[in-house]
Design brief:
2% strand; single chain; elongated; two-stranded antiparallel ribbon
């Protein structure tokens, strides 16, 4: 924003005066101002409205505002607002960003939760680009008798005059219409199911490539390449390419919901602000999220692997029964946690990098390009890059976990992570640790793309059918 000087817009103020003067008598009364404010969703006390009129009623002292008094009052008030807007707009872009608001309150030594700042932006931001323009800032504050930028001014007494308080009925209505956190969880789960189903053949190829160095797959006596695996699955029947997809969907829906829920809660928690570097905090939150979700979902993951690698299909319930009865146990709960240690070792850095880099990259892109919500391709590029980086760094651990999960032999001969690492290194070297990586990587990009498209579509459908 090149011009940093306030220029009064008397034409706009004149139109506002006409809107307020509902009696068309050339004056704005207490009742007219009260009616306008209530219809705009803002609640002011009687004293606040009277103080506003007294501030402008400096010539006639008759308790109402004539045209000139109103224009002078608003010009003076907007000039004061403009000075504060410029103070908040550090980069001179003409828009106030989330980071600029956060920085301002930090300078004031006031600890405002990230969620509260997002709520404030949502209240002011009319065009939903997650940035506050001068017009939005002015409209939101234009009828305050006294303007000041403080935490109390914006967030009310809990942060030590609550600015524009929305009436309770209107607030309930806005919360109904809002596409909230719960809805995002549901739509995220749906998106996960659709993207997983669309990429199920690649997912099964990935798993078969990972385990075939340890056991025979699809009845073949030797190791098969990607093309050979595809032909073998087609020969079994096209639908076998989706074997294990049912258990995958049962796993991915709650897993996506949990991952999103836990990660957002951790990012907003003061407990996770362990470093001055925000990226480090995001990486830590991502890692803890991964461990939490993996611990809860591991039995489902193990069952999925067994279903996908089985020589004969037992179905989900049959596979669960088979796992529970291994090693002579009637129902061995511990059987469902075989291979847990390498899984946790792998998921900690993977989730840390994938979630942390995705969130940090999205926020960084928004800051650099002065946009509140990055478009489809930027978000796809950011999430895909973060996923590929995370996969490249943690794939050897993922491979080891998969082989431990697929093992069905005697418990006394079950390989440990150390013996598996040694065997893979001896047989294939570094290349062996990345068996199936290409199929996994090829699956990651379309899965991210499909998941994002489905998420945005389900969000729009929700707002269309349930948002009113």
């Amino acid at each position: 924003m090149e011009n940093r000087t306030y220029k009064p817009d008397e034409e706009r103020l004149s139109q506002l005066f006409k809107t307020l003067d509902t009696h068309k008598d050339g004056y704005i009364t207490f009742e007219e101002l009260k009616t306008y404010l209530s219809h705009s969703g803002q609640r002011f006390t009687r004293d606040e409205i009277n103080n506003l009129i007294k501030r402008g009623d400096v010539r006639s002292k008759d308790g109402v505002l004539d045209y000139r008094e109103f224009i002078d009052l608003m010009v003076s008030h907007e000039r004061e607002m403009w000075e504060h807007f410029v103070k908040l707009d550090k980069d001179g872009s003409g828009q106030i960003s989330h980071s600029e608001l956060s920085q301002y309150f930090r300078i004031q030594h006031v600890d405002i939760p990230d969620s509260k700042i997002k709520e404030l932006i949502a209240r002011i931001d009319k065009d939903k680009n997650l940035l506050i323009s001068w017009d939005e800032f002015r409209e939101f504050n234009q009828f305050r008798a006294k303007f000041e930028i403080t935490a109390r001014h914006y967030f009310g007494d809990s942060y030590s005059d609550g600015l524009v308080n929305i009436p309770e009925k209107k607030q309930e209505l806005s919360e109904k219409k809002k596409f909230g956190f719960t809805e995002k969880l549901v739509c995220g789960g749906v998106a996960g199911v659709v993207s997983r189903t669309a990429t199920a053949p690649l997912d099964r190829i990935k798993v078969l490539l990972q385990v075939q160095g340890q056991q025979k797959v699809l009845g073949a006596a030797e190791e098969l390449g990607v093309g050979q695996l595809c032909r073998a699955m087609v020969n079994e029947g096209v639908l076998t390419m989706w074997r294990g997809n049912g258990i995958s969907c049962l796993k991915i829906f709650p897993e996506n919901a949990l991952r999103f829920l836990v990660f957002e809660l951790l990012c907003e928690s003061d407990m996770m602000k362990l470093s001055q570097n925000d990226l480090v905090n995001k990486l830590l939150s991502g890692g803890l999220t991964g461990i939490t979700v993996q611990s809860l979902m591991y039995p489902v993951e193990l069952t999925k692997i067994r279903v996908m690698t089985a020589q004969t299909s037992l179905g989900i319930l049959g596979t669960v029964r088979s796992i529970s009865q291994e090693n002579g146990k009637k129902f061995g709960i511990t059987n469902f946690y075989k291979g847990m240690s390498p899984a946790l070792m792998g998921v900690l850095p993977f989730a840390s990098l994938q979630l942390g880099l995705s969130k940090a990259g999205t926020e960084l892109y928004s800051e650099w390009n002065k946009v509140g919500n990055p478009g489809f391709w930027p978000l796809l590029s950011i999430s895909s890059t973060a996923t590929l980086v995370a996969m490249g760094c943690t794939y050897p651990l993922q491979l080891t976990k998969c082989r431990m999960q697929a093992y069905t032999g005697p418990e006394s001969q079950r390989p440990t992570p150390r013996t598996l690492f040694s065997k893979i290194w001896t047989e294939s070297g570094v290349k062996g640790f990345y068996r199936g990586f290409s199929a996994n990587a090829l699956k990651a990009v379309p899965a991210s793309s499909i998941g994002w498209v489905v998420f945005t579509k389900t969000q729009k459908l929700y707002e269309t059918y349930f948002g009113s």
